[in-house]
Amino acid sequence: MIQSLLIANRGEIACRIIRTARDMGIRTVAVYSDADARALHVREADEAVHIGPSPARESYLIGENIIAAAKATGAEAIHPGYGFLSENATFAQAVIDAGLIWVGPKPSSITAMGLKDAAKKLMADAGVPVTPGYLGEDQNPERLKTEADAIGYPVLIKAVAGGGGKGMRRVDAPEDFADALISCKREAASSFGDDRVLIEKYILSPRHIEVQVFGDTHGNIAHLFERDCSLQRRHQKVIEEAPAPGMDEATRQAICAAAVRAAKAVDYVGAGTIEFIADASDGLRADRIWFMEMNTRLQVEHPVTEEITGQDLVEWQLRVAAGEPLPCQQDELSIEGWAMEARLYAEDPAKGFLPSIGRLELFQLGEGLGGRIDTGVYEGAEVSPFYDPMIAKLIAHGDNRDEARELLSDMLEDSAVWPVRTNAAFLIQALAHPDFAAGTVDTGLIAREGDEMTVAPQPSGEALTRAAMQIVPRSPFSGFRLNAPARRQAAFLLDGNAVEVTLEGVGADAPVSSMLFAESGTVWQLRPFRADGAGAGGVADGTILSPMPGRIIAVDVAAGASVTKGQKLVTLEAMKMEHSLVAPFDGIVEELNAVSGGQVSEGALLVRIARAEQGETR
Predict the structure, then answer these.
(1) Is 215 within 8 Å of 294 (Cβ atoms)?
(2) Are 394 and 344 in contact (CB under 8 A)?
(3) Residue 537 reports pLDDT greater than 50
(4) What is the per-residue pLDDT for 576?
(5) Could you give the domains of the chain?
(6) Residues in CB range of 148: below 8 A, 6 or more apart
(7) What values do phi and psi take at 359, rounded to 5?
(8) Strands 77-79, 4-7: pairing kind
(9) Which residue out of 227, 233, 297, 401 is catalytically annotated?
(10) How confident is the model at residue 477 (pLDDT cuts 50, 70, 90)?
(11) How far apart are CA 461 and CA 29, in angstroms?
(12) Residue in 298, 318, 330 with CA at minimum distance from that of residue 225
């Protein structure tokens, strides 16, 4: 067995690999960039090596630095996780050439499945059903248009070297083909350095079904059943589940057998996923499920397979890489119950899914409800702008689909993250959507109806009142009204917006300056609203908060300085634009937290202005 392992990745997948390696008695080595110096995977590994600046292209994507780190620390093997260099055949070969164990498929398998057109030809030759389309070498626009006309619209233009939803265009009519082709080829050239495309029949009621496969060096290949990843936003998976709803046993056997044939065609070793597209307009049928592509690595959604099979896929990877046979044979594997996974992102759905960065002052994910949480961050950690915004995966397992769905929703409801925004409320809405609840979701659901899922939730009056009671001090007269409870109107700022709350009874014995409260996967901040600041413009009580995540590029005031209404205080750079934050009224800089060059999260307190007494000067 491998004795020491370097993980060439970061975040939750690095932490997840470390967890299994530790259980197997394997020493682990982490690598990290400048931005990840205090990251969770660095803390959890036995040893950690710095490999470069924060941008991935200068650190996690520099293969020679990673191999050098493995050599320097005496690591025997390298696990690439997913993303970054995980499907880079050149890096895989370099690891092997360096005398290290590559915990992944053969470089030749990665290459064979790396180009969509070549992979589809290979699959067709292996008897794996492929989507009707054109995979030819002739890239003349007139030839491509002729092939599209013959296939019948709608069609999908796809970059041969594409992935992640890039280099794809749906075309609904012949007259739209030329412009879509130009756009697709331009994006493909920019993203992948290869503008070649293929043409496929566009499936009108598509389901994304994938099969987990595993091979060893002894010629054994097995499948661990299917997953359904149909709930997607812009071709990115949102919620995954296993098994697939509506899958009968005959169709399951057919699709899983096709996946095994696909893996055998490339002499596959290690963990891989065969992705299929299904036309679900008449339910799931074996004759309407076609090969789409193969991912030659572990998938983000692998935990749902682990939950229904009781197997640890990272342990399988490590054992296979060490030369052992598969831990289980096909007839020893079975499906138990149902599992669902939600990807929790640091982003704000109500603002077009803009990334949200900053310090996680509050980070609680419903740990006590019995589900599984895979994460790479912790309370107090920084969410960086340099990497994928996924901060956790929440996984629920139940005896049936409804149980798993309800548990996952409860976990999200019980989650509280602040001041970084997340998509938790969006995920709750998606789980509650009638089509998803019924198991009839297709890949276009969010595109059609996502607006309803992204409406920012509002706190209930009861929750707002409970929070307000923690702020308002007790009145000495509150308990002495005859025949009626004490009642008063109080004004507050709720995430910067003025609200009025009717308070019954008394407030807190020891009032606080602000209150965080959570509901439906969302956290709100409540602050007292000073009546004398009403109508002052900006933030009425003089509290200047960052309107979005960004970087402070200028601070034009100092603590204690006097300012006039409209005077520029701080300049924030966000989304490639500069935003000036100004004084809402004449006053004194009572508090200054903005530092030039510093990164700030949305809602962070930058400046607090105290209203100047009339005639006061400084």
Answers:
(1) no
(2) yes
(3) no
(4) 55
(5) 4-103 (3.40.50.20), 104-131+206-336 (3.30.470.20), 135-201 (3.30.1490.20), 337-456 (3.30.470.20), 457-529 (no CATH), 536-618 (2.40.50.100)
(6) 134, 155, 157, 171, 174, 177, 199
(7) -85, 135
(8) parallel
(9) 297
(10) very low
(11) 50
(12) 330
pLDDT tens-digit map of 416-469: 999 999 999 999 999 999 999 999 999 999 999 988 899 888 899 889 988 888
Summarize the confidence of residues 286-306 as an average pLDDT: 95
Please tell me which residue, 483 or 261, carries the higher pLDDT value: 261
| Amino acid 475: pLDDT | 58
Contact 34, 11 (CB under 8 A): no
> Does pLDDT of 520 surpass 50?
yes
Cα 90 to Cα 330: distance, rounded to the nearest angstrom? 32
Say which DSSP state 159 is in.
E
Identify the three-state secondary structure at position 351: helix
Backbone φ/ψ region at 127: left (φ over 0), alpha (ψ -120 to 50), beta: left
Instruction: Give the Cα separation of 199 and 159 in Å (integer).
Output: 9
The span from the first CA to the last CA of the chain, in angstroms, equals 73
CA R_g for the chain: 28
As a whole number, the mean pLDDT across the chain is 90
Q: Is the pLDDT of residue 535 over 80?
A: no
Torsion, Cα of 230, 231, 233, 237 (10° steps): -70
Annotated active-site residue 297? The verdict is: yes
Residues 6+ apart with CB under 8 A from 537: 565, 584, 585
CB 562 within 8 A of CB 582: no
**CA 53 from chain center: how many Å?**
23
Indicate if the pLDDT at residue 8 is higher than 90. yes
CB pairs under 8 A, 24+ apart, for 229-235? 229/301, 230/206, 230/441, 230/442, 230/443, 230/445, 231/430, 231/436, 231/441, 231/443, 231/445, 231/446, 232/208, 232/443, 232/446, 233/353, 233/446, 233/447, 233/450, 234/165, 234/447, 235/164, 235/165, 235/168
Q: Around Cβ 400, how many Cβ atoms within 10 Å?
A: 9
Percent of the chain with pLDDT over 70: 93
3-class SS of residue 119: helix
Residue recorded with tokens 């009145």: 475
Q: How many residues does the chain have?
A: 618
For residues 102 and 78, is the Cβ–Cβ distance under 8 A?
yes
